[in-house]
Amino acid sequence: MKQLILGVFVLWLFSCNQQEDKKISTPNYFDVAGYFKQEAVRLQKFNPTINKIVSANGKNEQKNTHITNWETELTSFSSADINKASWKGEFTETLKNDNSLSYTTNNPKIPIKKIEIIKNHHQIKGIKIFKLTNNYLYTSTDTLLYYPDSLYFIRSEQKIKLLSKKIYQIKGEWK
Questions:
Q1: Nearest-angstrom CA–CA distance, 171 and 149
Q2: 59 — phi, psi (to 5°)?
Q3: Residue 43 gets which letter from DSSP?
């Protein structure tokens, strides 16, 4: 009897474990994470020379480089995945003239506010991602731009109460 009670208790503990919001197996929206995973693999093989400029509060550092890990380099983009189970139905899809597709939400709990995909004959020419995180102590606004084989750009503005605003930028251009 004690073993049965212990077994039920252990099963109950495991069932109470909070699960991370799972990604939907069949995406409702454009698969941002999948796209950037494929791009990372492609760019790892291609190994382009990148003119990379990193800026923090107006101080710039620039160098020509080969990115050793594209998956890490594109993490900010791939983490903007909107295909979470709890976000199903939260985004409005808008198609403009067969060349532009956007997903937007007004839900304050979702940090990704808008994703724009620019296409030309079913080939992706650009992706724009806009994020906003806002609470009592902290506001962060991120703009991410990606143009395959041309440019990637990340701009983050952060404001913490009682501290000055900080602006960070990363710009990578193919040579």
A1: 13
A2: -95, 120
A3: H
Mean pLDDT over residues 32-36, rounded?
Answer: 95
Q: Which pLDDT tens digit goes with each residue over 78-130?
A: 999 999 999 999 999 998 877 899 999 999 999 999 999 999 888 999 999 99
In eight-state DSSP terms, residue 86 is: G
Asked if 81 and 23 touch (Cβ cutoff 8 Å), the reply is yes
Question: What's the pTM value of the predicted model, to 2 decimals?
Answer: 0.83
Paired tokens of 32: 């941002």
What's the farthest any 2 CA atoms get from each other in the chain?
72
CB 118 within 8 A of CB 127: yes
DSSP annotation of 87 = G
Q: Does residue 77 contact residue 112 with C-beta atoms inside 8 Å?
A: no
- Tokens 């983490």, residue located: 79
Q: Which of 173, 116, 122 is nearest to 148 (CA)?
A: 173
**CA torsion, points 71, 72, 76, 81, in degrees to nearest 10?**
40
Query: What does DSSP assign to residue 22?
Result: P
What distance in Å separates the CA atoms of residue 146 and residue 118, rounded to the nearest whole number? 10
Type of residue at 145? L
- Please report the beta strands in 57-150, taking only residues with DSSP state E, as ranges in sequence order: 59-66, 92-96, 100-104, 112-120, 123-134, 138-147
**Tokens 């003239």 belong to which residue?**
97
Q: Following CA atoms 79, 99, 154, 57 in sequence, which dihedral angle do they give, to the nearest 10 degrees?
A: -140
